[in-house]
């Protein structure tokens, strides 16, 4: 569990990016932080691995106050995937991924073996292992970025708009792939996006932010869609439109949610509380 307790981040120029944020992020689930540009998403993410230090308040990982930990050691045990993949241009795909286990003390041979396994995990052909990042498509580069994020076998994976720069089809593929990986690995994923549809597709928990890192609403996609907290949330999620256009149909015993074009938007599945959850 990652816990933010009244966390504020003010930069030296006086900008308060995040003000008094309290938030619990459950382990082994995907939490998506979503909001408009500049509302503090990246700052929140970067405070978790201390790329940015909080000005006040406490962040805990499994009850450990992270301000007491060595930032470099902390960063090594938390995976980080960013929008432009962050790959080293002069290293092969394999070495980009192997760098992480090497830094953590594995031998070159073991690190490369681990890197090859990770290429399989993210669905990349081994034939690409010896290429350089510029010789890959944007979608392939992002897969390498995810492989690198997973390379230290971290419990926590931070993802900052990782699929923001690829075309919609590839983006859908990458989202599906991430869901498959998450079903297998069950990491604590904190995912930042400005795209509410991506948030609803990927998040077990979705946190909708206003300016200044203030939480407008947090909950499961089904909770938020069925009961937007206020007009801000309703307009952010396009709830009025969704209410008009989303409908359900039972197919092969499963309740499928269809959008206005009749395209499946998700599955309703029963959750232990007795409610329904949109997947
Ligand atoms: N190093 C910095 N110095 C001063 N202000 C900063 C710094 N980094 C971020 N900010 C400001 O803090 C606020 C939040 O920025 P942040 O990058 O967290 O937002 P974001 O929601 O991730 O935005 P985007 O979706 O555009 O990436 C913005 O007003 C931004 O200008």
From TrEMBL:
**Which molecular function GO terms apply here?**
ABC-type quaternary ammonium compound transporting activity; ATP binding; ATP hydrolysis activity
Which segments constitute the ABC transporter domain?
Answer: 2-237
Q: Which PROSITE patterns does UniProt cross-reference here? A: ABC_TRANSPORTER_1 (PS00211), ABC_TRANSPORTER_2 (PS50893)
Give yes or no: UniProt keyword Cell inner membrane. Answer: no
UniProt keyword list? ATP-binding, Nucleotide-binding, Transport
* Enzyme nomenclature, EC number: 7.6.2.9
Question: What does the similarity note say?
Answer: Belongs to the ABC transporter superfamily.
Name of the protein described by the UniProt record: ABC-type quaternary amine transporter
Organism of origin: Klugiella xanthotipulae
């Amino acid at each position: 569990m990652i816990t933010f307790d009244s966390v504020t981040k003010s930069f030296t120029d006086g900008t308060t990016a995040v003000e008094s944020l309290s938030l619990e992020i459950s382990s082994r689930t995907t939490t998506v932080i979503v909001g408009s540009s500049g509302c503090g998403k990246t700052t929140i993410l970067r405070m978790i691995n201390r790329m940015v230090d909080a000005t006040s308040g406490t962040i805990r990982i499994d009850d450990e106050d992270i301000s007491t930990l060595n930032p470099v050691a902390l960063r090594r045990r938390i995976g980080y995937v960013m929008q432009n993949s962050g790959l080293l241009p002069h290293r092969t795909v394999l070495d980009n991924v192997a760098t992480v286990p090497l830094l953590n003390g594995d031998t070159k041979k073991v690190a490369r073996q681990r890197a090859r396994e990770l290429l399989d995990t993210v669905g990349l052909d081994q034939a690409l292992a010896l290429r350089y990042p510029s010789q890959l498509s944007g979608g392939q580069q992002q897969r390498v970025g995810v492989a690198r994020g997973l390379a230290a076998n971290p419990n926590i994976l931070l993802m900052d708009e990782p699929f923001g720069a690829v075309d919609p089809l590839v983006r859908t593929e990458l989202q599906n792939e991430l869901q498959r990986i998450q079903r297998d690995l069950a990491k604590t994923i904190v995912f930042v996006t400005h795209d509410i549809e991506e948030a609803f597709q990927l998040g077990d928990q979705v946190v909708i932010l206003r300016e200044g890192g203030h939480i407008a609403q947090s909950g499961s996609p089904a909770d938020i869609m069925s009961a937007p907290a206020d007009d801000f949330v309703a307009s952010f999620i396009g709830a009025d439109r969704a209410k008009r256009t989303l409908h359900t149909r039972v197919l092969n015993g499963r309740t499928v949610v269809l959008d206005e074009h009749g395209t499946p938007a998700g599955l309703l599945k029963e959750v232990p509380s007795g409610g329904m959850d949109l997947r």
